[in-house]
Amino acid sequence: SHTHTHTLSHTHTLLSRSICLLLQASLPCLLFSPPAGPSPSQVTLRGGTDAQMAPPIDYLTSVFRPIVSKFGVKFDCDLKKRGFFPRGGGEVVVTPSSVQSLSPVCITDPGHVTKVTINSFVAGAVPIKVAHQMSRAAKQLVVRQLDGVTVETNDTQEPPARATGNGSGIIAIAETSTGCLLAGSAIGRKGEPAERTGRSAAEELVAGVRAGGCVDEHLQDQLIVLMALACGKSVVRTGPVTLHTRTAIHVAELMTRATFTTRRLEGQDQKGEGHVIECTGIGLQNKHF
After folding, report:
1. pTM of the prediction?
2. pLDDT at residue 7, as a whole number
3. From its phi and psi, is residue 211 left (phi > 0), alpha (psi between -120 and 50) or beta?
4. 72 torsion bin: left (phi>0), alpha (psi -120 to 50), beta (else)
5. Has residue 144 got a pLDDT over 60?
6. Which among 11, 191, 207, 288 counts the fewest CB atoms within 10 Å?
7. pLDDT at residue 85, rounded to an integer
8. CA distances, 287 to each of 7, 8, 100, 169, 230 (Å)
9. Contact status, residue 200 vs residue 135, Cβ threshold 8 Å
């Protein structure tokens, strides 16, 4: 339905397909939509909040959202219900704020890890002990691999109304002294020990930290479209440049006049993994302002 000041859209992904991927694809359009006026625009997304081969909803809210705020991107994300493979059934209400333009970013100093927060959850018939087992295994690995880092754990049993079906998951988020956020996550699989799920998330986090980037391998490709649309030169330090990122750069250059360069950092104790991605953005302006 449409009014002069309020737009409410409903979008369904196919069964348990990732809500987070759909939001990342639609976010640039939402950012450059007309200003909302007294009543904010909202988008309701239904599908999988915690799916394999995609970032979980907790990554979107705890890593993606605070980092993209550096571009001037602001949106509220209200998790109504978690949904899992194969049923889906998750629901998220997103309230974006329109922008006149996006600011360029300079994210080049990874600093050092000061804190790791581990959040695990279970839903449906999965007992809370599974969340405890996941977070305990993840914490043990992080403590062994990242010396002297404070580790906080939070284990949650989702209320019945907050999830469709049975599921579990974990995310481990590292905060650095320069405000960088890197994460590793894993979704519980049927027949997989909870400890293995927890270690998988922790191993992904530790690998991201050791790669020496300011962003992890997931965030690096998610920033490309925002860098392309921003006003001026953006610079982001990463670890190894992934195929997803190279593909995103190729598509962004085809669709816009943005130009990207990628160079390897020399003299790093990273076995050649450190890179810097630079982009001269097109400075897209929201004509509705």
Report:
1. 0.92
2. 47
3. alpha
4. left
5. yes
6. 191
7. 82
8. 18, 21, 8, 41, 15
9. no
How far, in Å, CA of 286 to CA of 17, rounded?
30
Closest CA to 220 of 200, 202, 242: 242
pLDDT for 36 equals 72
- Tokens standing for 231? 């006003």
Residue range 246-258: mean pLDDT, rounded? 97
**Residue 163: other Cβ atoms inside 10 A:** 24
- The confidence band for 3, taking pLDDT boundaries of 50, 70 and 90, is very low
Cα dihedral 29, 32, 37, 41 in deg (nearest 10)? 10
Contacting residues for 190 by C-beta, under 8 A, at least 6 apart: none
Residue range 135-141: mean pLDDT, rounded: 98
Q: What angle do CA 130, 134, 138 make, to 5 degrees?
A: 170
What does the pLDDT look like over 60-104, one tens digit per residue? 999 999 999 999 999 999 999 999 988 889 999 999 999 999 999
To which H or E segment does residue 80 belong?
strand 75-83
Q: Which of 2, 6, 244, 288 is catalytic?
A: 244
Helix (H, G, I), strand (E, B) or coil at 218: helix
CB 245 within 8 A of CB 279: no
Supply the DSSP symbol for 247.
Answer: H
Give the containing element (helix H, strand E) for 132: helix 128-145
**Residue 244 is a catalytic residue:** yes
Residue 135 tokens read as 């977070």
Helix, strand, coil fractions of the chain, as percent rounded to 5: 30, 30, 35
Peptide bond into 240 cis (omega under 30): no
φ, ψ dihedrals at 210, nearest 5°: -70, -20
Separation of CA 57 from chain center: 8
Nearest CA-CA partner of 155 in 166, 141, 142, 171: 171
